[in-house]
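Handout, page 2. Input:
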Amino acid sequence: MEENDLLKDRIKLFCQDSGAFEVEKDKYQVINVSNSLQFLDKAVGLKVIERIKENLPVGGFVVLAGFTTGDPFYQKTLNHCFFEPEELKNLFSDFEIIFYEEKIITDSGHPGFEKPHQHAVVRMVAKK
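Output:
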């Protein structure tokens, strides 16, 4: 039996509106929220984080990557879920922070923004 066969029954991947994602109590050992919260209203993004924190089992991990208010594309008037300096770390102060960084990165380009550009990002891995 191949390793992939062993994992297919243990790993479930799905795609849905992250703002509406209902985190079932103690169901997930790892929740990965990467580069999606900045597309949500700040209040909705904070609700997603609240649901993760409340329902992740003790010993479970959250992997989170997003944008900070230092991002060149940040506009306070849009009220998207960009994080202030240290905000994400403070939101998870009751978790064990395994990895945390805030920095400026160069994005080589993507559809809609084909030219290289910069982003201010925050990346975190935390254990409940």
